[in-house]
Amino acid sequence: MRLIDLFKEKEILDFRGDTNTEILSLSQKADKKCERGLFFCIKGISGDGHDYILKAIKNGCVALVVERFVDSELPQILVKKVRNIMPVLCNRFYNNITKKLTFIGITGTNGKTTTSEIVYNMLLLDGKKAGLIGTNGIKFNGDIFKTHMTTPDTVDLFYYLNLMMISGIKYVVMEVSAHAISLKKLEGIKFEIGAITNISEDHLDYFHTMKDYSLTKLKFLKKKYCKVSLINVDDEVTKLFTKVKGINYVTYGIINPAKVFACDEVQETNGIKFLMNIFDNVFDVNLKLIGRFNVYNALLASSIAKMLGVSNYAIIKTLNNLKQVDGRMNVYYLKNGATAVIDYAHTPDGLEKVLKELKSLCVGKLIVVFGCGGNRDKIKRPIMGKIASQYADEIIITNDNSRDEDKLIIAKDIIKGIEGNFRLELDRAKAINLAFNISQDKDIILLAGKGAEDYMEIKGKRIPFSDKNEILKYIK
User: Fold this and answer.
1) What angle do CA 316, 317, 319 make, to 5 degrees?
2) Predicted confidence (pLDDT) per residue in 157-171, tens digit
3) How far apart are CA 76 and CA 87, in angstroms?
4) Per residue in 224-241, pLDDT tens?
5) Is residue 307 classed as helix, strand or coil in its secondary structure?
6) In Å, how far are 178, 357, 375, 403 from 406, measured between CA atoms?
């Protein structure tokens, strides 16, 4: 495709060089190899793509989209905001691919991954060709591609959407992060259904206030992005969205009156039973996952599936045969009679919900091992410490992706909120083994914060590490 053919005249402020240059690929990462690539010079949070032109050229870029002209002989198209126009150009490069796929987007602080996985499995069981994009990777046609963020960067996102379309995929279930909304990654994509799970404190290092964070999530639910949205009326924040103009919505819940709802929950140690009414279709569900939050996840997923025309058979069979979602309330039984649980809970709300559910099931002691990520929201650290002390009998503070921060300083921030005794072991593997060694029959050990992650991010490097592997080593 010619460079000039990607643009409409009104989008170009100015240009230099040969705009008939042939473009064969797209790039927003200067250090990534490409063939005759168009490089997007994005002004990011910690860097500016305009400063990495030479590296981009070395790796195969032959043209640039810029916000200011740079010292280069390559063709350059000057635009008002590179980040905003990038998804529009990606869509055109792939022949308006967004018109050829049906998108389902799920946003919210917690529950996105589990809900997305359930919807994905319901679509597959119903015989529909579906793909999944989220925290645990990109999945379609039996293949899994790893990603390093909930919603991939724009160029990567459209690359995988094109692969899905070529493979015959019709439905794309996508986790939508607040960052993706804020950074305009989804411009040009119209979602058949959008949904929000809940909103609680997270990412305030980026959004600064809960109001800004909530308003960002709210933007996604409006008609610009979503034809219809599903809103949780039991969540204190999201229920307020029903009063906002510009949203075509359906409500779901357990406590407050809603269009689709669940009731008569019976929590057991190996799962939860409940009744579910989805648009007057009543289901008797026996979920092999624990926790009320999984009732919300199942309710939301079933509502989405029903709106997409999935059969009652596929919905109920998926729920009743649902396996653990990787990194979400994964249960392991130790030889000493204790139970170990892995969960991604990395926010105050997420940690509180998981600890509260486990406390209600725990006959012995409840032990929690967790830390907080570096270079992220510092405000939540003492809050999570306080929550841990409210529910856990034993607290072990450790490391969790300290990144560029001192892990001891992070731990001290958490400790400020702890009311009572705790243990400190900054080596996460040793902290996990300490928890196992102090545990006894009928105790529950929660390993919180990392979920399915298979690395520890320290000083710009990702060192192989997995909570699951530590459990399996101990069991063996």
Assistant:
1) 65
2) 999 999 999 999 999
3) 18
4) 999 999 999 999 999 999
5) helix
6) 27, 32, 10, 8
